[in-house]
């Protein structure tokens, strides 16, 4: 059986709240001028701001660069958040 090595390399660099460079990006979920959502090796990353613009995207190298007015960044790792099932099904089990 062949062993598969998973490279867990994720880096996030913010310059002056105007430019973001991210490595470890596996997919772009959605983007517009106010919100960019990407899947990273460390969970789903949501970047909120204004006039956001994707400058460079290379999924083969797992890199993304964007600029604009950065207001917030939030991770959702899927294990603690967003697990299968609705809120009501989790509540009533």
Automatic annotation (TrEMBL):
Family matches, as Pfam families: YabP
Gene3D superfamilies: 2.60.40.2000
One Gene Ontology biological process: sporulation resulting in formation of a cellular spore
Protein name in the entry: Sporulation protein YabP
């Amino acid at each position: 059986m062949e062993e598969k090595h998973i490279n867990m390399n994720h880096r996030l660099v913010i310059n002056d709240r105007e430019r973001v460079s991210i490595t470890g990006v596996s997919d772009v979920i959605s983007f517009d001028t106010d919100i960019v959502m990407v899947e990273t090796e460390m969970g789903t990353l949501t970047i909120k701001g204004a006039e956001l613009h994707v400058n460079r995207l290379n999924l083969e190298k797992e890199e993304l660069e964007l600029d604009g007015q950065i207001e917030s960044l939030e991770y959702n790792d899927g294990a603690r958040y967003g697990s299968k099932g609705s809120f009501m099904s989790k509540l009533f089990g």
